[in-house]
Amino acid sequence: MIDFTITEEEQLLADTARRFGDEHLRGPERDHEKAQAYPPALHKLFGEMGLAGLNRPDAGMDATHRQAVWGALAEADPSAAFAMDPIGPGGALIEGLPAGIGAICHQEKIVIEDGKATGHLGWVPRSQLDWLVLVGAAGLFLIEAPPHTVLDQRTCGLHACGGVEVHLNQSPVQTIGDATQAQAVLDECRLIAATVMVGAARDAHNAAAQYAQERVAFGKPIAHHQGLAFQLADAATDLQAAQLLVEASAGSSTLVANAHAYADEVAHRVCERSVQALGGHGYLYDHRVEKRMRDVRAVAALYGGSILSEHHAATGILDLIDPLELS
Amino acid sequence: MIDTQLDAGYENVLRMIRYVGEHMLRPAGLAADRRGTPIPVDDPMFLEWNQTGLSFGAVGMGKNSQGEGVTRINRSAILAAEEMAYWDQGACMSLPGPGLGGPPIRILGTESQKQRFLIDPFEDKTKPAWGAYATTEAAAGSDVARIQTTAVEDGDHYIINGNKMFITNGGRASWVVVFATVDPSAGRAGQRAFVVEKGTPGFTVGRIEKKMGLTASETATLFFENCRVPKENVLGAGQDKSGFKAAMATFDITRPMVAVMAVGIGRCAWNRAAEIAREAFGAQPTSPIEQAMLQRLAHARQRLDAARLLCWRAAWKMDHKQPNTIEASMAKVYAPPAALNATKVAMDVCGLAGVRNDTLVEKCFRDVKVFDIFEGTGEVQRIVLARRLFGYPRTH
C-alpha cells in the first residue's frame, strides 16, 4: 500500500518535541553552545514532557517515533538530538546497556583483538563517558569506563553536547552483539543522523526564506529576485526528497546508507545556500544559519561518516530489488 | 510512517502493463527510433492495444474525482505511468485515445460534448482514433497568457486564426482541443477552449517534427486559417473563470504523472547498466574504476528513488483530496534531472558501446531530456514553488 500517512502518535511526539525546542532551546541556543552543556533543569523538563528515555529498548517506541522526535528537536538545536538522552542514537536496539552516560560510535580504526581494544576516537559528542559501544563489521563491543579526556579545543559544531576524545590501550571489551545486530544498530544511527541533518537544514532554509521575504534590495524583497527564488525552491524540493528517502529507507541497509549519504549532501548544500541568502548577516552569530551549517558537518562525521555510507551503498547497490520489480 | 509496499491490486496493474510493455511498446518504440519516424497510423500495434480493453485515459492520466472519499486511482495511475515509460514512453504517447485533450473535455464539457468527443470516436475498436491538445505556440510556451491564436465570434460560429506547435498526435487526431483568445488584452481570462474536428475547413496539419527522442510519438504543427468552429464545440461556454481554473488544475494530476514517466525511463537505463555491471564484475569490484562505477550507480539510484517518492506523495495527496500543487511541482522539478542523470551514468557504465544508437541506454538518454521541458519546464515549476512558498510575484 503506498501510504504517506503520519500516525497520531508520530505527530504528537513531533509536536511535543517541537514545542520543547521552540520554548526552551531556540532562545538560549547560543548560551548552551557557549557552555558546551545543557543545564540540568532542562534535562529534567525534557523528562517531564515524556520525552526522556526514548533511546532505551523498553521505551515502547519504534524507529519512526524516534525519528519524529529527534528530527523535530534538531530544528531548534541539533545538539539536543544527541545530548538530551543519556544513551544516544542506536541504544534502542541494544539490551542491557550499563547505567550512566554513554555513546554508540562506529569502530573506525580501533583494533579489537583477544577481548582488548586499542585505538583512538578523535571526538565523541559527550561531556563524560561511563560506557562506550563500538559498532564494527564483526559485531557490537561494549567498553565500560573507557579512558577519555575532555577535548581541549572546540569542534566545528554540536558544541552543546560537549566533547571528549577516547584513548584505548588494551581496554577490555565485551562482545554484546553479532554482525547482524551491529548492522541494525548502524542503520538506526545513520537514520537518526540523517533525520537530524535534514531537520537542521530545514530550519536553516526556513530562516533563509523568511529573511529573503523581508530583506529588500533593488526595490523588492530578495526572494522576488529569480536567482534567489529558484535556489530557495530547489532547497525546499531537495529537503522534501531527502526526508522521503530517509523515511522510506528503513529495512534495507543499502538504502539506509544511500539515504544517509544523500541527507548529508542535501543538508550541507541547503545550509550553505541559507548562509549565502543572508549575505554578510548569515556569517554572523546573530543568525542561526551559520550554526546549522557547522552542526550539520559535525553530525555528518558520526557513525563512520557519509563516505563510508557511500561506500556501503555502492557495495550493495547491485543487489537492491526495486519495488516495481515483481516476484 | 511511509509505506511503499505494493499490494495485490497495484501488482495486478503492473503485471498488465508489463505484458503490454514487453510485447508491444518496447518493440514498436525501438523500431520507430531506428526508422526515425513515428509509429504509422496503420500499425497493427494500435489494433492490438484496442483489443486489450485498456484505455490510456484511465491508466495513464489519473483522475481528479470530485466528491468521493479516498481513492487509489492516482496511485494506480502513477505506477502504470512509470511502468509504461519503462518500456517505451514514445510508443505509449502514440497510443489511441483522447490523450491530453481528455481532461479539459471531462472537466469543462457538456454531456453532449463528452458523448461526441470522448465516447463516439473511440467506440469502434477496429478503427484506432486519437484526440489532441493544443496550447503551445512558437512564441508562447510556458507563458500561456501570451498565446496569439485568436477566436472571433461570427454568428453561431467562432473564426480561429493562428498556429500551434509541439502537438502530440496532432496530425492523426479526430479532434484537437485548441486554446485561443477571444480578448487578447485580457490575458488568460480571455482564453477559451474549442474542439476543432479533423476536416474542418481552414484546419491543416503542417510538418511532423524531427526530434532528439520520443521518435515513436508524432509531434505536429497545426495551422488554423479562418477556421470556422461551431459554437457547440466551445468548452465551458457560459461558465465563469472557475471552469478554466479547473482545467488548469489538471496540472496537479498530470505533473507528477509526467515526472514519474521520467523515473521510468531512468530506471530502464539504470537497470540495463546494473545488468552490464553485474556481468562485468559481479557485486565485488576489483578495480578502482569498477568501484567508481558502483558509486555512480548508487548516486543515480538515490535520486531516482527520491524522485519516485516525490511523485508518489503528490499522487497520494490527490487520492486523499488534499491540495498538492506544491508536491506536484516538486516532483516535476526534481524527477527529470534525476532521470537524465541516471541515463547519463548508464551510458558511462556502458562505455563506448553506450553511445551507439542501438543500445537502449542511449535511446533512454535522448528520450528523457524533454521531460524537463514539457508539461511546464523546470523553470516554470520553480516559479510555481516560489509563488506558493515565498510570495514570488505574478508579474514583474
Please supply descriptive tags for the structure shown above.
heterodimer, A: 327 residues, alpha+beta, Butyryl-Coa Dehydrogenase, subunit A, domain 1, Butyryl-CoA Dehydrogenase, subunit A, domain 2, Butyryl-CoA Dehydrogenase, subunit A, domain 3, 3 domains, four-stranded mixed beta sheet, four-stranded antiparallel beta sheet, 10 helices, 49% helix, globular, B: 396 residues, 12 helices, 9 strands
Characterise the protein shown here.
The complex is a heterodimer of chains A (327) and B (396). In chain A, a hairpin with a 2-residue loop joins strand 3 and strand 4. The longest helix of chain A is centred in the middle third of the chain and has 36 residues. In chain A, helix 6 packs parallel to helix 8 and helix 6 packs antiparallel against helix 9. Chain A has 3 domains: 84 residues, Butyryl-Coa Dehydrogenase, subunit A, domain 1; 79 residues, Beta Barrel (Butyryl-CoA Dehydrogenase, subunit A, domain 2), CATH 2.40.110; 139 residues, Butyryl-CoA Dehydrogenase, subunit A, domain 3 (Up-down Bundle). Chain A has 327 residues and is an alpha+beta fold. Chain A has 10 helices and 11 strands. With 396 residues, chain B is of the alpha+beta class. Chain B has a 4-stranded mixed β-sheet. A 4-stranded antiparallel β-sheet of chain B has the order 3-4-8-7, with no helix packed on it. In chain B, strand 3 and strand 4 form a beta hairpin. Chains A and B meet through strand 1, helix 6, strand 11, helix 7 and helix 8 of A and strand 1, helix 1, helix 4, helix 8 and helix 9 of B.
The count of β-strands of chain A is: 11
How many structural units, i.e. domains of chain B? Answer: 3
Strand order of the largest sheet of chain B: 2-5-6-9
Give the oligomer, counting copies of the same chain as homo and different chains as hetero: heterodimer
Query: How many separate domains of chain A?
Result: 3
CATH architecture of the largest domain in chain B: Up-down Bundle
Structural class of chain B: alpha+beta
The CATH class name of the largest domain in chain B reads: Mainly Alpha
Q: Give the proportion of residues in helices of chain A.
A: 40-55%
Q: Considering DSSP H and I runs of 4 or more, what fraction of the residues of chain B is helical?
A: 40-55%
The H-and-E topology of chain B, N to C, reads as: EHHHHHHEEEEEEEEHHHHHH
CATH class of the largest domain in chain A: Mainly Alpha
Write down the Rg of chain B: 21 Å
Looking at the structure, the CATH topology of the largest domain in chain A is: Butyryl-CoA Dehydrogenase, subunit A, domain 3
Q: Do you know the CATH architecture of the largest domain in chain A?
A: Up-down Bundle
Rounded mean pLDDT of chain A is 95
Main pleated-sheet profile of chain A? 4 strands, mixed
